[in-house]
Write a structure and sequence with these properties.
mainly alpha, 275 residues, 2 domains
Length: 275
């Protein structure tokens, strides 16, 4: 079966191989990363709130670039405290090198944008305006990650609900496949055919619900807000749409069972004596 977004079960896969467990592992890994970053940004915000600005007005970013970046020995004391706090919290998470591997300057720009990073890296002292903007940006980063964790939790529940429905379909399909069709009467075969068609409708419902639901959700996920949920989560996996992959696998089994039942039903009807 090919779904409307092009997902198809790869040929030669083992029967009923499920892609959902790897997808759930991926979600849980991302949730763990987000939890660590939430704690780190919260700790940074606490330390930042205790740093007193050393200037009243915000510097011009262009001016900061024109005069160049301060050497470490010349850095404003408040800016140095900001830098140290950031490195000891946000950049100190265990996954930092694997996930980012960025310098202080690069990470500042990635998280807060070029203008605020410029103000924090430039020659001018830390102003009250920049301090307030940074506090607001850190709060936004925290809100972003809290929203992302909620999105991941919804996605995990959606996968588990869909997989539960598919598991029930598989169980019923096992019962159909275990029937010795040669011993079935035409009436029994007709009922089996109806049962298989009902399984097909149930499987199609799983696909329809997934495709019309949160599959195409775009959310502010970490620093990947422009990507779809599936692209953000499942890009590194072999299967980009795990629940649809599983549904396609089940659908193929259903199609085989339907052909088998209908073949026996046709042969039985043909073999019946005519008046």
């Amino acid at each position: 079966m090919r779904t409307t977004d092009g997902t198809q079960r790869p040929a030669g896969s083992a029967r009923d191989r499920s892609a959902v467990p790897a997808a759930v592992d991926r979600i849980e890994r991302e949730s763990t990363i987000l939890a660590a970053e939430l704690d780190a940004f919260d700790a940074f915000r606490t330390r930042l709130s205790k740093i007193e600005p050393t200037a009243a007005s915000a510097p011009s970013c262009d001016g900061a670039h024109a005069t160049g970046l301060r050497r470490d020995g010349e850095r404003d004391a408040a800016l140095a405290r900001v830098r140290d706090a950031y490195r000891e919290t946000v950049m100190a998470v265990d996954h930092y090198e694997d996930e980012y591997g960025e310098s202080y300057a690069e990470h500042l720009e990635s998280e807060f944008g070029a203008e605020l990073a410029c103000a924090l890296l430039g020659a001018a002292p830390l102003s009250a305006v920049v301090h307030d903007r940074l506090l607001a940006a850190v709060s936004a980063a925290i809100d972003n990650r809290e929203s992302a964790r909620e999105t991941l939790a919804r996605e995990e529940r959606a996968l588990e609900r869909g997989e539960t429905r598919l598991r029930a379909i598989r169980d019923d399909l096992d019962a159909v496949e275990s029937r010795p069709l040669l011993d079935c009467s035409p009436g029994e075969l007709a009922r089996l055919r109806d049962d298989v068609r009902a399984l097909e409708r149930r499987c199609d419902d799983v696909v329809a619900d997934r495709q019309s639901g949160d599959l195409h959700t775009t959310a502010t996920l970490h620093r990947d807000g422009a990507r779809s949920l599936s692209g953000y989560l499942y890009g590194p996996l072999d299967v980009q749409h795990p629940l649809l992959y599983d549904a396609a696998t089940v659908s193929e089994r259903i199609a085989r069972a339907q052909r088998r039942v209908e073949t026996h039903l046709g042969a039985t009807v043909s073999a019946e004596p005519h008046p």
